[in-house]
UniProtKB/TrEMBL annotation:
Keywords: Membrane, Signal, Transmembrane, Transmembrane helix. It comes from the Eukaryota. Residues 1-22 form the signal peptide. It comes from Acropora cervicornis. The chain crosses the membrane at residues 264-286. This is Uncharacterized protein. Residues 296-316 are annotated as: Disordered.
Amino acid sequence: MSFSLMILMLIAVIIFPRGIQTIALNINIYGDDCVSGGMQVEELTKGTIAVFQLSNGDIIRGIRGADRVHSWCRVEAVYPRKGNDMFTTYDGFTADHMVIDAHTVRAYGKKGKATKSRLYMLATDCDAAVNAAGQAFTPISTAFCPHELSWSEYLPLIAAIRRVTSRTGYFWYFSDAFFNNETARVPEWKNMLHDMCTELLRCARKGQCQKFEKVVNEFVNEHMNPKYRVIVDHMFPNIGGDVEKSETGTITELVRPQDKSNTLLFVAVGSAIAIVLIIVAAAFLVRRARVTGKAKITRGPDPSDHPQAKAQDVET
Ligand SMILES: *[C@@H]1O[C@H](CO)[C@@H](O)[C@H](O)[C@H]1NC(C)=O
């Protein structure tokens, strides 16, 4: 019974990967934060294999949600990093790659087994993937978000990134998607990443998005390879716009917490219920006032000490 349920859910996840949860565990946000192609992961049918042997649609282990529930995750994208350069990884991670360590998301650091390897970008539909050694890892590195994040800060951030990448494609993770621009406010594109992380967090967690909209627009206009910029402009025709006037066509539309309208709905329903309760309470009090009023008239000046009057009060 539970087994067939599992199979059904698995089929559902395979057929409607985005419907179940829009997702993408990406490992190479910008530059140096990849995983080694040789890192071992467990695949549902292929068993334990190396990252470089994975294909899109493979199912690997990962975790989802506030409770970090272990689950199977669909590989949305897996690419070797451009060029044949070898990089030092530690237990399969570049030193600045962010992994999950107890309740925090932080750089793996220079520990464990150092090897020179080809780097891969890997994206799944979970909040984090888990390798064969049981280490959970994110798709981002300190090149993007420099500080340690709590899991609860990280979740809305990664969910927003997934909504964007599943709309536009995964080129945000390719370092060749961006270039340095001498005439830009910030000539080196990598120097804009920390600002973008800060504003992305502010937008995805608190719904304050105008600065985020502006900084992404600047980044896209001044640093993004034209072949990808075309896609972004097409998907977000109003990028850089005033998001307090209208979110339509902005990147904020995807990043801002989706429950804003739900919150309004809850407030509306909540106030309706409160109004009904107030009316009911008022009707009750009026009725009670009338009854006790009558009681006073019929029973004399001080009925409250009388046990029958008390019983009547309770009943009405
Ligand atoms: C470089 O940045 C400037 C803004 O300062 C922008 O107008 C220009 O298009 C950018 N260069 C390229 C090649 O995109």
